[in-house]
Design goal:
Layout: H1 5-13, H2 28-36, H3 39-54, H4 62-90, E1 94-99, E2 102-107, E3 116-120, E4 128-139, H5 141-144, E5 149-152, E6 157-158, E7 163-175, H6 181-191, H7 199-229, H8 234-248, H9 251-270, E8 273-275, H10 280-286, E9 289-292, H11 294-298, E10 304-310, H12 321-334, H13 340-351, E11 361-365, E12 373-378, E13 381-386, H14 388-392, H15 397-407, E14 412-419, E15 433-442, H16 449-458, E16 462-466, H17 471-480, E17 489-491, H18 498-507, E18 510-512, H19 516-528, E19 533-537, H20 543-548, E20 551-555, H21 560-565, E21 568-570, H22 578-615, H23 624-642, H24 655-683, H25 688-711, H26 716-735, H27 747-779, H28 781-794
Helix pairs in contact: 2-4, 3-8, 4-9, 7-8, 7-22, 8-22, 8-23, 9-22, 10-22, 12-13, 18-19, 22-23, 22-24, 23-25, 23-26, 24-25, 24-27, 25-26, 25-27
Length: 798
């Protein structure tokens, strides 16, 4: 009967629900706090206070940008959270519960202590429970790391977080919510940190960390030098120090990353793609091997029985198709399996109105991924249904010709066989096996499968088809779907060791008869070869491999456990969405990588200029308002606008190396040209205000040079971005000159600025060529080997 409505209300009032407050997603408060209470915001607050103390209010022009950054970051993260929460609600795990004597489906979070739930294959166990009746096989790999299936019967304990592989049972919930086993593990995992971060996020965090360490001592040195050594006023010393520190802080880079990921999450949600983790976008973009299952990915998720065939080796003279159909009806009525195969058989029995016979049940043995067959014992005989190779074992060749006729056409074939007496309960029947007939099943190929796999081939992404079905059948289906190399297949049951699997991943495209553990080993073998691996799946047998893959993608039409374990869920179960998902990831990472180089130019210039000022005992030449002007129109605005551009290019190389290679020539050009301008200005006794204005214009020229460089090839959008920023800079220089400390300069200073601007163009071009050649030289494996040999030969570092 389950709990009554009154008992449920009582437990809800007592807080005994399955709701957990342990979440990997940020709360609203955490989002606001993470954007507002940052180390750099503290630095900006100190700089603001210092400028207010010395009365330099015009140099507070950076404040609107900082406030805007914070507000935009909070808004976009909250917007993305709202979208994710809404999508997660649609994809939330559900449970069948018995209340007031009736079965009803509710969200797993709405369960209460002592609820009676019904568990069947594909369900993830949502709270700690005890089996009341029935029996199931569960996999606790997500909790223990062991992939063995464990039989659970009446009185046995069930741990939340494990998932049901086969069978069906009634279970009573003992520990719910934060008290459950999976919640305790989640709490521990959360306490240890957010886990492995993507390469891009990891490098950005490192950059921010090191900048945060450097700016304090550099700021103190510059202030002391200007105030004590150069005899500047307190106000001038503070302003020059603030300008240097302001230039070293990559204030917009973290915002750009957050906003780009949030917008991408929202765009994907509109395409029915749910991301459990925003950072998985980058991993998707870097994928170069995609492992797919046949059923539900290449083919439509539903199966259908195409034909029943009597085996030529059938020893029962009275067995015909009609008798075989009645036997199948008896078998499907008593077996506890409710996987896709058995559902298709039951649908066939119902559609053809096949009546059950009068066989008397003794016991059943559900299907498992390890055995690849199920077994039912009637008084009238013992019968097995499953993979022909696993049932016939050494005698498979006796029936192989009959089966290959159908497998060559891409059909899946199951064998129904009668076995001898198996009273010991052994996994393998002890008596002889007599084939009865075959159930021929088909999965229609998805309409967009061929175009999807063609896209991945063009993008250099290798496909590996990993399935539990017969390899010949899977190979034929893969050929029809247009997968390159589909004719190269192997039976995974012949791969006895990890070494065999490692060798096989290089040679074969299609893997058949793969166990869940082998799927995991195939993923690991590919990762050892430095591949970034994505695993798609829809069943509980895919979860182990999905857990180890760099990125996991689940079909919502598959098992609940797979959908909850995956980083990405295709809510409409359409594999044709995958090219768009990969494209979205590439757009985000490539554009952030390109825009990050703009931010790094300012950081490189400011750091090197600060060192230059310290070495040559000069006061830092620029003011904070001038740094803000340059940042706005040569870094911030173009960086954000360029980040919106479509970009399908494959991601290659190391994120930080790629960014540094683009930023270094411009940063060095800035330092050399502005440094030379400052030295010449001192030689000609030019006013510091003139030098600062000329230096600002020089930085603007180099800034637009790098925008032009990273924007190739140009299109209408990029021309528009360049034009908008040039007009914006000119407008602020002409009409808001006093606000941004832009003064009219002398003729000699103007001439110096023009000369150094032309020199900067040549310098930037040659430095870019030098860095590219240097990168090409060290990027060549042969050259790297030569350098390593010389280091070993001469013991350079000894």
């Amino acid at each position: 009967m389950g709990l009554t409505s009154e008992e449920v209300r009582e437990r809800i009032d007592n807080g005994q629900t399955n709701h957990t407050d342990i979440s990997t997603q940020k709360t609203v408060g955490q989002i606001v706090k993470s954007n507002l209470l940052t180390y750099f915001n503290l630095i900006f607050l100190i700089l603001t206070v210092l400028l207010c103390i010395v009365g330099s209010f015009r140099n507070l022009t950076f404040l609107p940008v900082i406030i805007g950054n914070t507000v935009i970051g909070i808004f976009q993260e909250l917007r993305a959270k709202k979208t994710l929460d809404k999508m997660s609600m649609l994809n939330a795990p559900h449970s069948i519960v018995v209340r007031d004597g009736e079965q009803q489906q509710i969200q797993s979070e709405e369960l209460v202590k002592d609820d009676i739930i019904i568990l069947s294959a594909g369900n993830q166990i949502c709270a700690d429970a005890t089996v009341l009746s029935g029996s199931i096989s569960v996999n606790e790999a997500l909790l223990t790391g062991e992939s063995d299936e464990i039989k659970k019967k009446s009185g046995d304990r069930l741990m939340s977080g494990s998932f049901v592989v086969s069978g069906q049972c009634y279970a009573k919930l003992d520990k719910v919510g934060n008290e459950s086993y999976i919640s305790q593990l989640t709490a521990q995992a959360k306490a240890m940190g957010d886990g492995e971060q993507s390469e891009m996020i990891r490098y950005i965090n490192k950059l921010v960390k090191w900048v945060g360490i450097i700016i304090i001592p550099v700021g103190i040195i510059l202030f002391c030098q200007a105030y004590i050594m150069n005899g500047e006023t307190f106000k001038k010393s503070v302003v020059s120090m603030v300008a240097a520190v302001l230039g070293m802080i990559p204030e917009g880079l973290y915002l750009l990353t957050t906003v780009a990921l949030a917008l991408s999450t929202i765009r994907l949600a509109k395409k029915q793609v749910l991301l459990h983790d925003m950072k998985s976008i980058e991993t998707l973009a870097r994928v170069d091997v995609l492992c797919v299952d046949k059923t539900g990915t290449i083919t439509e998720p539903g199966m259908q029985v195409t034909e029943l065939v009597i085996s030529g080796r059938c020893g029962d003279a009275e067995m015909d198709k009609r008798a075989f159909a009645h036997l199948l009806a008896d078998y499907s009525a008593v077996i506890e399996d409710n996987n896709a195969t058995m559902e298709a058989i039951r649908a066939y029995v119902a559609k053809n109105e096949i009546e059950k016979g009068s066989r008397t049940l003794l016991k059943t043995q559900p299907f498992t991924s390890a055995n690849k067959y199920s077994k039912v014992s009637f008084v009238e005989g013992d019968y097995m249904l499953g993979a022909p190779e696993f049932i016939m074992k050494d005698r498979y060749e006796e029936i192989s010709e009959e089966i290959e006729e159908y497998q060559s056409k891409g059909y899946r074939v199951l064998l129904m066989a009668e076995s001898g007496d198996d009273s010991t309960g052994s996994v393998r029947p002890l008596g002889g096996i007599s084939p009865i007939g075959y159930i021929v099943l088909s999965n229609p190929i998805r309409e967009n499968a061929e175009s999807t796999f063609t896209y991945f081939k063009e993008q250099g992404v290798a496909i590996k088809v990993i399935s539990g079905d017969n390899p010949a059948t899977v190979s034929e289906v893969a050929k029809r779907a247009g997968i390159d190399g589909a004719e190269n297949y192997v039976d995974a049951s012949t791969l006895a060791s990890e070494k065999d699997i490692t060798e096989a991943v290089d040679k074969y495209t299609v893997f058949g008869r793969v166990t869940p553990k082998q799927k995991q080993l195939i993923v690991r073998a590919l990762q050892k070869q430095k591949h970034t691996v994505a695993m798609t799946g829809d069943g509980v047998n895919d979860i182990l491999a999905m857990k180890d893959a760099d990125c996991s993608i689940a079909m919502a039409s598959g098992s609940e456990a797979a959908a909850q374990a995956a980083q990405t869920v295709l809510l409409d179960s359409d594999f044709g969405r995958m090219p768009y998902v990969v494209f979205e990831g590439r757009q985000v990472v490539n554009n952030i990588q390109r825009s990050a180089s703009l931010f790094l130019v300012k950081n490189i210039f400011s750091l090197l200029m600060a060192i230059f000022s310290a070495i040559f005992a000069i006061t830092y030449p620029l003011e904070p308002s001038q740094i803000s002007l340059i940042s706005m129109f040569t870094i911030g605005l173009p960086g954000f606008l360029l980040a919106l551009e479509p970009n399908r290019n494959r991601i290659e190389g190391n994120f930080m190396v790629n960014v540094m290679l683009k930023a270094l020539p411009a940063g060095l050009t800035d330092v050399l040209s502005v440094g030379a301008l400052v030295i010449c200005g001192q030689v000609f006794n030019l006013p510091s205000e003139d030098i600062a204005t000329a230096g600002t214009m020089l930085l603007a020229v180099v800034g637009f040079m790098i925008i032009i460089k990273i924007s190739h090839p140009f299109n209408k959008m990029k021309y528009g971005v360049l034009l908008i920023n040039i007009i914006g800079l000119l407008f602020c220089g002409l009409f808001l000159g006093r606000l941004f400390a832009i003064e009219s300069i002398s003729n000699i200073c103007f001439l110096l600025m023009v000369v150094f601007a032309f020199a900067a163009e040549s310098m930037f071009r040659y430095l870019t060529l030098f860095v590219e050649k240097l990168s090409s030289f060290f990027g060549d494996e042969k050259n790297r080997r030569k350098i390593r040999r010389k280091i070993r030969k001469y013991n350079i570092f000894k």
